[in-house]
Please model this.
Amino acid sequence: MNRTIIQTEQLTKRFGEKIAVDGLDLRVEAGSILGFLGANGAGKTTTIRMLMGHLHPTGGTVEVLGSDPWQQNQSQRQKTAYVSENMDIPGYLTPAAAIKLNRRFYPDWDQALAEKLLEEFELRSVGAYRSLSKGQKRKTCILLALCQNAELLIMDEPASGLDVTARRTFIRQVLEIACNEGTAVFLSSHLLSDLERTVDRVTLLDEGRLILNGHLEDFKVGIRKIHFDVPVSLEQIAEQFKVIRYKKASEVETVVTVLDYDEQRFDAFAAEHSGTENARCYPMNLEDMFVELTRKSEAKVQLP
Amino acid sequence: MKTKTTRTHLWVKVTAFYLMLPIYLSILLGMFKLFGQSGEYKTFFGILPTVVVIAVLLSAIFLIRSGKLAIPLIVVAVFLFSAMMIGEIGGFKLDRGGKTQWTIEGDFKIPGIDVYCNDVHLGQTPLIITEDEFLAKVKLWDTPPSQQRTTLREDDHNDDTRFGWAQYMWIPSDFIEYTKRWPDEEMQRPLWGGIQKDAEIFEFCKKTPYWWRFEKNGCVGLSSFKSLLSWGGSGGPFGAKLSTGSTVKFPSLDKHFEVFIADLKRNNWQPDQAWMKHFAAYKDMLFGKLYQYAQKHPQAKPALDAVVRQEMNIPKGELSDGQRRQILDDVLRRCEEKSEFRIPSFESEASLLACRDKPEMIGEYYKKSMGRSRGGRISSSGSYIRYGNPGPAIRLPVMRWVVNQYQPPQLYNQLVYSVGNNAGMSRWFGLTDLKLVLNYPRDESKKILRYYLKTKQNQKAGPFGRAHDNEDIIRWLKDIHNSALEPEIRRFVQDNPGRHGHELEQFVNSRVKHFPKESELPSWILHYTQLRNDEKARLIAKLKTDSINHHLSYLSSVNPRCRDKALEAFYHSPNRYGDEFIIDSYHHYTGSVVQRRSLPSNFIWALAATDTPKIRAFISEVWDKGGDERKKLLEGLRSHSWHHPHMNWLVAKIEQLTQKDERIIGLCLLPHIGTDDAKALLEKWANDPASGVVKEAKWRLEYFDKKQKERQGGVFTQDTIDGLLSGKIKPDDLLVPATAYIWDGEKYIPEKK
Amino acid sequence: MNKSILQIELRKILPFYITALVVIISYVLFWPKPLMAGDGIIATAGFLQGFIITWIVFRDAPAVECFLFSRGITRQRLFWNRWWLVAVLMILMLIIAAAVISAGLRCLIFVNGPWHPMVKWYELNILWPLGLASVAGVSVRLFLLLRDRFLKPDKMLSTIRRVWKYILLVAAVGSAVLLGRVIPHMEIAIDYLLIASFYVAGLLILSTATARSCFLNMEIHT
Model:
């Protein structure tokens, strides 16, 4: 078992009456890339800020690199790299100057990578930060994070505003970092297509609560949309599978989304319920999964 | 996590409270100060400050609990305003129950004078008594008391006849009336005008039944019938001061002092225990005289030193630093309690003793005193400084005076830079300290003086809050006594004499006092002499002194009073300037330009005291001229109280007078001459009806005998000295008994023995 | 690392600091009257410059704050870096003022003035109000700034709320008037500066401790 980089237990954050994060249990191991998903306002950024020691949890515990983020010493803090879409460096710095300034914080700074990324992101001869475009600003911040040689890379919407080329460079770099067995990547993004290519684990938050946490491949295998041409009751299908969504599309048509599809169990179900053997099963990509799990409609079934 | 944030909250609250600490402290201290001051109005003003204090404390508690600054600050702001308002109101006494207060003080604030009214002992000075209390204690008299009457001084203008019982008009109401002054015609009468004059006075005073008597240590204080009631002043609208002022004198004081000195001489100027003990009993009355005596007779200085040490508990010998500090603390404490500082006094002498050879002590206490001083009402003259309210405000002026005596160099910088700021209250301190600075003999003083004069002249509104004029500057400059600055100062005064003579007169007096050098004085006398050009030329021709010639350019016109005051300063040392100067002064006074009604007393004294052939010839010359000139000379000689047996030669001339009025005046001179020839002439005229002045001659003969007795009494026997020191003889026993008068139902008549 | 932090902070503070330095040193150099311990102008200037310098150093734009607080540096170290920078700037100001006076420059300028020769060692007393007021300004701002950040999220306060607080602060400063009734006038305030020194020292310690605690525990909402 790999070293645990991030661990939370019943992590909760309230802002007055509003519960932003509700009892989150999370575990991220070294060598993994976690995709942290959720709709707007689900609590992702709040969780990330608690991980970074920017917000005090209202309840529960959080450990990053083995210690409370609020208690970390300097060397522990140097092992965490952070990028946020709301983050800016001082406006007077050029990217090159920012590299020079930033590398003093990190003894393991990878200057060669910094030079390389400076070229790839085309930031070498640009002006001061405040005069850069949104994309260039994002690139600069990403560059600063990637070159830290950190054990934990926390990224909150890092790629918003990046062009395709830059995104590819970014993804490639993240994957390279993740190859290092001691490093974990915690990535929150709405660009699910990028995430799908990058992450190996997924955590999904909805209204502050954890609804999905596990390997992406397992979910890809397990989550299926099934179209039945005969009426099937929720109780019937729930006997066999974990139903996420249940909808009677028409009098005879039923659409069900399940979490733990298994061919054998489906065959057993079909055998019990006539007319279901012709059901059509559709696999889902990450985006489909995200929509199915977070879309608010009467068809949604409360997950156990 | 929760613990950490809780701890942070606690830090916040504690720091917030600490930040507000000066505000709370200042409010609390202000309240306590106000509370303490409210005195008899505690009931009214005590509740409100208490409420404020409680509110302040509650807000502090609230602050601790909430950690928020905003609400306590609102509370503070509200009560800050309230505190200021209360401070304004609290100083104003609201109780107007009509309790008029009387403050009775003796001359020069001598404490411990027993005050009697209609034979009821009211207390000792300083006496404060309310009107109600007075009316309850003192009962009216049906008959005026037996009187004791003494004439202290004779001159042409003031009849200083005094009485053992003084009658002050006091109408028991909210208003005080001034007594009527003597009718003018009295001034025209000869001095010993007769009983009728007294009867009229007593008749007039019969309307007011309150008779006051003052006694101290067995000495009776004599008062005139002129009572002056001061209204307002420090007593405010609800109090009045009955100031005896110069109306209570102790006539035995001079004799008393002579005996004292006689004993000192006897003991080779070393005071013994009996002497010290007696002095301690009469210290308030005798100290001033001893001080003045010691200035002229250095052999008395050890005695002065001894009494100061006794009074102020100063050990003999060299003083340690701790002892010096103790002395200065005592001096300042005493001045605080009395709310005044007198020069000379025990305090002034002790402070000089403490700081002698220790200039750093002056600096230390000067700085300390600056910390305690806060301005306030002050009245001062050359000999005292007085504050309206008791308290530490008087410390700084005391130390300023000490600085002026020693001028320690290390204090110079402190003084210079305490002057620099002209803002607000410091303005007052600044100016006074500037005087101290300018009195230092340093080169910078000239530059600073020029800067000061230039600035003050250019200012529209001066430090006294009104448009500045030269009189203010002159009044201020008179306290600068730095000889290096004198040319500059005098140049300024010459160019800017001002409109009124009063300040100039004070200025000249100060110059005469502080620069009594021959080379300087004549320049001032001529500076303020109003002479025409031909008069000037005559005076220049007659005056032989080189230094006078040097300054003859300083002639300008100012009011006669100022000029004459300047001239009079010369006559204290008549021989210093020679006979010619006196003779020329006579011409000056009698010249048509001056037109004085009478010759000044100082000049007369100088004329009478100078016994040279030239002066004799001159007096004879004037005498022989006759007419108005002789009369003026006679009047002048008559008005002055002197004893010059060397003027015996004048007796023959007096005898030759034929006019009755001249003879009457001439009679007045004979007791002053005091020789056998003078007495013989008096006896001759007293027994010769043809002389036309029998009655006047008899009176003068009485006076002659009285004066002789007094002169003879100047030589005291051993028994007298011992008796006085031991207390068996009272100081008043040394006096020639005054004439006693009794009331016969209608008027006062001499008591027959 | 310290160099980086210093670079960022100096960049923020230098324009204002140099301006304040010029203003204050000009006053010290060119004020025609003798400088002394109770100088209200220099005290006010000192307080304001300490106040504003602390404000500038300790306050960041929200986005930059997010950057800074996620760097490989503890909050404690960041706080002390900033605190020491402010302290050094204050001390530097005092040193320059002292150097100007000690070098006798005022004597040269005011050679024809009435107070010449200026007693420079006496005029060094102006360092008292400058130093104490600067420290007081730093302390007050440090406390208020970080306390506000700690108690509330860093939202935009309404104008009225912000202005009202400063009006009340002015009212608090007005208590010096009442305090002046107890302590004598400022000209001879030297002895009382000792009392003020103790208070200001206590204030600095408490405000630093409080500010540090707030700094370590305040939330970053960007």
User: Anything to note?
Assistant: The first helix of chain A runs from residue 44 to 51. The longest strand of chain A covers residues 4-15. The two ends of chain A are 28 Å apart (CA to CA).
